[in-house]
Amino acid sequence: MSKILILNTGGTFNKRYNPLKGELEVPTDSLALESILRYCYNSSYEIHNIIHKDSLDMNDDDRALMVQCIENSTCTKILIVHGTDTMDITASYLALHVMHKTITLTGAMVPFSINTVEATSNFMLALSDLQSREKRGVFIAMHGLVAPHNAIYKNRKKGIFEPCVVSQES
Fold first, then answer.
1. CA-CA distances (angstroms) from residue 43 to 1, 26, 27, 39, 131?
2. 23 forms bridges with which residues in the sheet?
3. Using one digit for the tens of pLDDT, what is the confidence trace for 136-159?
4. What is the predicted pLDDT for the residue at 41?
5. In-domain check, residue 101
6. Domain span at residue 32?
7. Which of 58, 70, 126, 128 is a Cys-bridge partner for 141, taking CB atoms 3.0 to 4.6 Å apart?
8. In a domain, 169, yes or no
């Protein structure tokens, strides 16, 4: 089994309530991931906490840092925990800059610290898909779906990720 590089970039997945400020904050640790991964007995991985932002605050410098970390790693399979609001932008950026690895992005709409179910489900979906996937490319794993990054989108009206609908002309 090949080792998986897990890049933790923050996002809602990781947010925790700061009672002194009365806000949800993105921490600089990987407590949420470590809580999930302690039950992954058959996985070989390394975690790098590289960005600690809400995805709305991410920019191309952050994305370039992700590319640099991916390129510098000997791992060929990469799992990125990312905020859902700009996950598609980052996925498209990575698809342009990393050709020889398999990358899956996942996240959560509800912080792990508030309810563990969605974050755990999405993370385990991404991890298990990466462990068995042989095709290279950039994928998104959310809400029970894993698809190439350009075949899945965040339906902001429903608050879930869905497959893109391909129109068929008659």
1. 8, 26, 25, 9, 8
2. 18
3. 999 999 999 999 999 999 999 998
4. 87
5. yes
6. 4-163
7. 126
8. no
Distance of CA 56 to the CA centre of its chain: 14
Residues 32-53 have pLDDT tens digits of 999 999 998 888 999 999 999 9
- Angle between helix 60-72 and helix 87-97 axes, rounded to 10 deg: 50
- Count structural domains, the chain: 1
pLDDT digits (tens, 9 = 90+) for 87-125: 999 999 999 999 999 999 999 999 999 999 999 999 999
Integer Cα distance of 67 and 95 in angstroms = 10
Q: Which residue has the tokens 């965040």?
A: 154
Phi-psi region of 124 (alpha: psi -120 to 50; beta: other; left: phi over 0): alpha
> Do 45 and 4 touch, CB atoms closer than 8 A?
yes
Assigned domain for 10 exists: yes
Token readout for 148 is 């190439």
Residue 12: DSSP 8-state: G
Tokens of 116: 């563990």
Residue 14 is assigned to a structural domain of this protein = yes
Neighbours of 30 (CB within 10 A): 17
- Domain with residue 65: its CATH number is 3.40.50.1170
